[in-house]
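User: Could you walk me through two proteins back to back? I'd like the raw sequence and the structure tokens for each, with a short line separating them so I can tell where one ends and the next begins.

Assistant: Of course. Protein one, sequence then structure:
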Amino acid sequence: MPLREQAIKLTVEDEDSPLYGADAIVVRAGRLHLERNPARGESYRQTSLPRSRRRAC
């Protein structure tokens, strides 16, 4: 599975992610965000962090 798809899967399945349960995600400039709300998202780096450290970024 390509990295982009893995990152999307991680974010939509993680209850602590701002993209939890989302279905229309855009990946651009190292960041994942909602298609209709670019302010709601996270970076690839945040996606790869353990849940306990996400809020610190």
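----
Protein two, same layout:
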Amino acid sequence: MERKVTKFGNSLGITMTNALKQIGLDQGDIVSIDVCQDTKEIIIKKSTKVALSEGVSADFTDTLTEVMEKYDHTLRGLKDR
């Protein structure tokens, strides 16, 4: 799928309604955006953050999320064993 970068007010953007629907996103959903400078890729994922249980710090969940995202491929491979 190719899209043209256009101007929205003072910002640049693209429309990608069909692509977002394919990954289950809808208006109001929160996304995580990662930019890889080496490959010039942008990765958009539906946010997986949830409400914290009492006593669980935001730092813990942020670190856990980072580790899970970093080792996502490895963890998925372990699941299939």
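Helices lie at 17-22, 58-70, 72-79.

Let me know if you want the two compared in more detail.
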